[in-house]
Amino acid sequence: MVSMLIAGVDEVGRGSLAGPMVAGAVILDKPISGLKDSKMLKRNDRERLDLEIKAKAMSWAIGSVSVEEIDRLGIVEANKLVMRRAIMSLNIIPRLVRCDGYTCGCGLNEVGIIKGDQKYPEISAASIIAKVYRDDIMRKLNDLEPRYGFSRHVGYGTPEHLRNLSLFGPSIYHRKTFKPIGGAP
To answer: Domains in the chain and their CATH numbers?
Structure first.
């Protein structure tokens, strides 16, 4: 019996120039070996852990916000919204929510923890499922719009991506309010 249901929540894609922002929320009741910040894992390790997390977690959920919502709300409010969506999609209501970074105003007992994805396994697990989900979206967007190389940089501002933006201009998948696409200098 779990005495305190604790959910971890983390987002991915905040600094990307294209694609949605995605958050994962996870309640663990069993230890899972190898959990850490998704950015510190190789793709095959993330994908293996994603399957294990989904099989072993007491509850897990994904939330997302669209490019249009990010442009309309701004990145800070969109970040809060995506985390709330993930938390509210859990099939169990947690007693405590550990948020990576800052709280999101989900209406539950929550605490923001800087670098939480490196400190708490439930936040690491949330980071991993969100990253695998978002990377898959970006590979699918690459199939629809191959000129930008989304499958390689998943929307982040790499030299390749910036070069292709200057050649082709932004696509419908780009965040129009982000510098260097159209946002403030």
So the answer is: 6-168 (3.30.420.10)
Tens-digit pLDDT profile for residues 101-154: 999 999 999 999 999 999 999 999 999 999 999 999 999 999 999 999 999 999
Element at 22 (helix H, strand E):
strand 21-27
Q: Which residue has the tokens 């439930």?
A: 122
Interatomic CA distance for residues 47 and 70, integer angstroms: 27
CA distances in angstroms from 80 to 48, 75, 110, 122, 183, listed in the order given: 28, 9, 12, 18, 21
Q: Is 85 in contact with 9 (CB distance < 8 Å)?
A: no
Neighbours of 155 (CB within 10 A): 27
Type of residue numbered 138: M
**Rounded CA separation 159/17 (Å):** 12
Distance CA 22, CA 63 (A): 6
Query: 3-state SS string over 60-124?
Result: EEEEEECHHHHHHHCHHHHHHHHHHHHHHCCCCCCCEEEEECCCCCCCCCEEEECCHHHCCHHHH
What's the pTM value of the predicted model, to 2 decimals? 0.94
pLDDT grade for 179, boundaries at 50, 70 and 90 = confident
Tokens matching residue 180: 């260097």
